[in-house]
Specification:
This protein is of the alpha/beta class and about 210 residues long. The protein contains eight helices and ten strands.
Length: about 210
């Protein structure tokens, strides 16, 4: 079992990812989805938490050895970014989706000088909107964003397009296809449900509405 498969198994075992092809979840965006992801759950399991931390550290050392800053996307990636920054002995900031409406009205919390090489950490990437907003905020203050790393990505075309246009490289520890294949192997889903999960990813905005017509 490779590391991507191992993490997929971990996520399923602790129910950080739940699959329900026949009774879909509703995302905040309104999209009906057969998958619900809550990677905050791994923080309660030290073995998985450390596995994710060490995997992120390994990616940064290998792909971005000149990293000077770690930036976490609020709120779910803040603890992950903290763990990674501590392990690498690097400074860290986190980026809010919008500026606070009180106090200093910060969007970026912490101190980050212009020109520093920065790696952005996310817990997951769905449409890519929140990740790109954080990256743009960092670029606005002069940070040089080297890349984006996340635990998991759905691999949706919309996120690939957005990040590609922004010239951002995304690296994930595991992905949607690995996860659903592992779910089948572990008898979490049937082969028929696997087919639904694969079809949904090709048309996430309209899959369930078209099925009901």
């Amino acid at each position: 079992m490779n590391n991507s498969e191992r993490l997929a198994e971990y996520l399923l075992k602790v129910q950080a990812v739940q699959l329900s092809p026949n009774q879909p979840f509703r995302w905040a965006s309104g999209i009906l989805s057969p998958i619900y992801t809550d990677n905050r759950r791994i923080l309660s399991f030290p073995i998985i938490r450390n596995f994710v931390r060490d995997s992120f550290v390994s990616i940064i050392k290998d792909k971005y050895p000149n990293t000077q800053y770690i930036a976490g996307v609020a709120t779910s990636a803040i603890p992950l970014a903290t763990l990674v920054a501590d392990q690498l002995n690097l400074p860290m900031v986190y980026v809010r989706p919008k500026a606070k409406d009180h106090g200093l009205q910060n969007k970026i919390e912490g101190y980050i000088p212009a020109g520093v090489n920065t790696v952005v950490i996310e817990d997951l990437v769905s449409t890519g909107g929140s990740s790109l907003a954080a990256i743009n905020s960092l670029r606005e203050v002069g940070a040089n964003v080297l890349g984006l790393i996340a635990i998991f990505s759905y691999g949706l075309d919309v996120s690939n397009h957005k990040l590609g246009e922004a010239n951002i490289e995304l690296t994930t520890l595991t992905d949607y296809i690995t996860l659903i294949d592992k779910a089948l192997e572990m008898d979490y889903i049937t082969i028929e449900e696997l087919s639904v999960l694969k079809k949904w990813r090709k048309n996430p905005d309209n899959y369930y509405s078209s099925e009901s017509e």
